Here is the input.
Amino acid sequence: MPHLSPKQAEIIAIGSELLTPERVDTNSLIVTRHLNLLGVEVAAKHVIGDDRVRLIEAIRAALERSDILILIGGLGPTEDDVTRDAVAVALGRKLTLSLQQESILLEKFRQFNRAMAKNNLRQAYLIEGAEALPNPRGSAPGQFLSTGRGAVALLPGPPRELEPMVENELVPRLKPVLPPQVIRVRSFRITGIGESDLDTLIAPVYTKYTNPMTTVLSSPGDLWVHLRAQSDSEAEADALLREVGNPIVELLGDRLYSERAGDTLDAVVARLLRQHHTTVATAESVTGGMVAARLTDTAGSSDYFVAGYVTYTDEQKHQILGVSEELLARHSAVSEPVAAAMAQAARTRSGATYGLSTTGYAGPAGGTEFDPVGTVYLGIAGPAAAKVIRVRYGSDRFRTRTLATQGALDLLRKSIGSLLMDFRTRPTP
Amino acid sequence: MPHLSPKQAEIIAIGSELLTPERVDTNSLIVTRHLNLLGVEVAAKHVIGDDRVRLIEAIRAALERSDILILIGGLGPTEDDVTRDAVAVALGRKLTLSLQQESILLEKFRQFNRAMAKNNLRQAYLIEGAEALPNPRGSAPGQFLSTGRGAVALLPGPPRELEPMVENELVPRLKPVLPPQVIRVRSFRITGIGESDLDTLIAPVYTKYTNPMTTVLSSPGDLWVHLRAQSDSEAEADALLREVGNPIVELLGDRLYSERAGDTLDAVVARLLRQHHTTVATAESVTGGMVAARLTDTAGSSDYFVAGYVTYTDEQKHQILGVSEELLARHSAVSEPVAAAMAQAARTRSGATYGLSTTGYAGPAGGTEFDPVGTVYLGIAGPAAAKVIRVRYGSDRFRTRTLATQGALDLLRKSIGSLLMDFRTRPTP
Here is the structure.
């Protein structure tokens, strides 16, 4: 078989149920994972209902654009199952009954101890030039065709039939038609910067390269930069990742909290607390328990999480944490001195190494001229010193609480093991 | 505007991250649900990477086949965000800076207290003839264009920006271009029963009807039954909803917590606490602050949420809540008496009407022969009595914590205003 150079694939999932508000195609994820490992990019995915005309058109269009086309589903025995027929029509090939597939099918039904309905015979039809892919877990065989430019595969929809067929039948048949190639990835997990500011910061580096390819993903307060290098040697792929990744690391500074793709800020903070044999307690107002919930999200969190106080009112800040009534009256609950006192109290009352506090206006009501809605004070008290930072998150309640929680965890991350001797630092009494 | 007869829609989700093995497009489900409610069927869905050329081609092809085209994502401020430009090119229309959108954008950044990076200005460009769709939760406006045959809409990718925009901006603009038809819906929000048990309970009622169409959606601890009746008169549609809905209400009993589609258990509990002029305090172990976080999720929660204690260790349960060391030693922290003592302490120490407690084994480690991993005790103490329930949730940490949080809120919901005179009830000391 000649070594073609297919690089791009498309996936079509077939089934009207995948076009309802309840169902989502996840089969394509299995196929994508295996294609990526072979160095093949998925350029587009489609979901088409059980509609022969639309499917024929979709197949034709995909084959004009892409080297490899994977079709998933629509291989059952009913009138609805149009995939075999649509591929044959789109390629201008015949669909003929395979006597070998017919006898395999009859044998399967004999084993299942079921009579074979006549429509099941549809599953024994192969597209001209196609190789049948055995399906030990179901009745419909897959099909594999090499085309001038690449390949077309028809795979069954049920995930437990699909997955082994991809691994055992599809991958070995695709390998010989692909150029040998290596894919290496590098990930950066980032917090403390907005998406567009991040892009302004690092785009001058990554836009100079198409290999590695750079992707930026974001959720509130959390960003992910992903580099993916393609090459014919591991050494070169790694060199490419260093060439682009290292300057990005420099630019990110301490906003980079992890280089592990699956990491979360919670997990990083948990690791740091363990490494330094330290513990934490929380005193939350504006975040209402969200910081404690994140800190206890990881198994074994009782090793480093000691206690949490959610003090929503002035009275509770005084009663539970011992923040002085005079301090509350003079500065109000949303203030630097009260955030400091809360962090300090969380630390001393629980005996934890660090006390972490949040107080602010989540909105929509509240706020002052100096501290409008969205203003949050985040406090930390440690063995050597205490520190408060003031942040303004904007006017959306959900966003403010989420970002303040992330901000508090990040303040803890940056403080663990340091002496907290920053600007705005005040000595621990 | 003329009454066209568009019936078929296509959805294109844009973003290279949606072509990786880790991410799946779920935004299209939100859009599909709303389109279906308008009587529009989704005929095909596509995922295209951040690839301008492929996207232009996909838009052109979709517009040849379908009446309505919805594009989701790719409206951000970076070079990667190609949707605006691709639609303009595909339609042969200009893309021009809207001074109004520019000033809205500047105002948003002013509110967020962030400097606007220059690339954000991309978000102020509108396609010729398009109407901007306001986005109160993000910076990128949506866009709506009516075409000769139907409509094209550009919507933002983040789900919390997308969902309100679909409901408040897209649906009202699509209605006038669709043939008139009455669709009426009825929703049931349910907790305290699993999805398959629920289906066993209510399927005998709803499977007799195809109109209304019944859908069951589930997330951990929370279920949604949705009836959709289609008719040419409101009266008939409503009669259909009564015919199927009323017997379902009977069967659900107090597991039905709301008939408002957009309601959450948090919001229902908040309304009940307000109505009865009552307050609550929490003492959490296994849920680590998640109950407090849910209770403070609603604006104005300081009216009814007094205080939260997260006591993760025996020592803290004793020190912070005053649970006796003897009780902890005799029964262990995960036990009915300790759950009761925690709830009682939360109530008395804070002065709240109700004290709500959680203690259990989230796993993966821990547990005893009698109380294996996944066992949780939920306690409530009220003016008249206290009550503890024991639940077993299974071995997944995330699931156990989520279900225990939901269970605690549901226990509170059922207790507010009642005298808590149930089995397992013990008198308040």
